[in-house]
Amino acid sequence: MTKKLLPIFGAALLAWGSADASAQELNCTVEVNSSQIEGTNKSVFESLQSSINDYFNETRWSNATFSPVERIECRFFLTVKEYDNDRIKGDIQVQLSRPVYNSTYTTTLFNFRDTRVEFDYRDGDPLIFNENSFDNNLTAILNYYAYLLLAIDFDSFSPNGGQPFFDKAAAVVQQAQSLGEIGWRTFEDNKNRSAVLSSFTDANTSAVRKMNYEYHRKGLDEMVTSPDKGRSAITEAIKAIGSVYENAPMSVALSIFRDSKLDELVNVYSKAPQSERDEVYELLKRVYPTDTERLDKIKNPDNN
Fold first, then answer.
1. Which of 121, 220, 226, 255 is the most exposed place for a label (fewest CB within 10 A)?
2. Residue closest to 85 by CA, chosen among 26, 44, 24, 139
3. pTM summary value
4. Is 219 within 8 Å of 237 (Cβ atoms)?
């Protein structure tokens, strides 16, 4: 069964069948920005961008069936800040989006800036996919984000539908920790790749996975035909953010939700009853006390 035969287009509802007759899963826009690097032959960065693009978009990450129009939309922006002796240091902005059922609207599922990025790359180095091992930190990073984005996308269409990909991302983290590179160690900081994965899988914060499904499948996907019903589901879903805040107030899950969803929530509640806007405002104000400008737009949309 392919995606187009299903009543909704969710990747998480795909059959896990033969990979031979379908497209790759990811449709990833890749950009490598080297504007901060002077006096260097830029061809290395052009080669790197092309290699990362091919790696994401030509690798089969599972045996789920996708048609070309159903590929998962994501963005991968690498900003190079240092380059010396084939060593690249910088940061990556990773974004994942998903269409909303029965509409032309696209919602952001994940928006994260990874500041702990270092790897070796020589112009023309091949990036070779191996599910069970990797030769360098760059392919480890790419594997990690591919599996993480698939996991989040699948979760948004069925409860815990992304578990196989979370398991694969966890295996990447475990293997990568042996490389000795930054960004992977469990207690290194609370916003590295290990911490991001833990924010979805640890018991104290895993409520974000249920929220992902209820917010998108029961909420946004319903709003086109039943705005009140869909918005009510979103209101109920985002209570999980309050729970995460109580259990793990420093969790990166909170900043990921803020960067992915706060602006969208302004629009979601623009026509909500005042009592519902007040409820959401009070919940989010406790978690995001410094984001008063955006939160005020939720509470009082007519004043903005």
1. 226
2. 44
3. 0.92
4. yes
